[in-house]
Amino acid sequence: MSVDPFRRAVAHLARFPGVGEKTATRYAYWLLRQPPEVAEGIAEALTTLRRSVHECARCRDLSSDTICRRCADARRDAATLCVVERPQDINALDGSGTYKGAFHVLHGALSPLDGVGPAELRIRELLARMGGTDGLPPVAEVILATDPDVEGDATALYLAKLLKPLGVRVTRLAHGVSVGTEIEFADRVSLARALEGRREM
Fold this sequence. Notes:
The chain is an alpha/beta fold.
């Protein structure tokens, strides 16, 4: 028996974060009311997104280029490196207007219960950047901007233990960011204060 295309579409739409079956059903009905080129355009954009976007070879942010626009920007301070959990955290920190250094994305946080250990994160790539690569200066300071929750704190402590023996200054965002708040959802003023008031680890 063939699968009902409407139910199949709803099931796929419901896979988006924060989208339940009712919202997915609304989206499916909306798509059916649009001209065919709307659904075709969305499908093509999603296919292109998946095929064309990959990790930046340097900072591991998502980019359609081998080196992302931030890493390619010579005006940024390459000796200061801000480590975040997710690509969307970069936009939040950049939006604070305070930070002008480089970034590194871990793509997660340590969470043994969820099967996320050091090997699942971009830690090896982070350590490789410490001595300076691609003609860049060695990293002088690493700001650990992981979320202020159990996983984020555990990740920050783990990284601090790895980085300190390398002679790098290791700091952590101050608590301008409320405990339990994900970086990407923090407001600009709180992020600016957290960056300015970062503490040594």
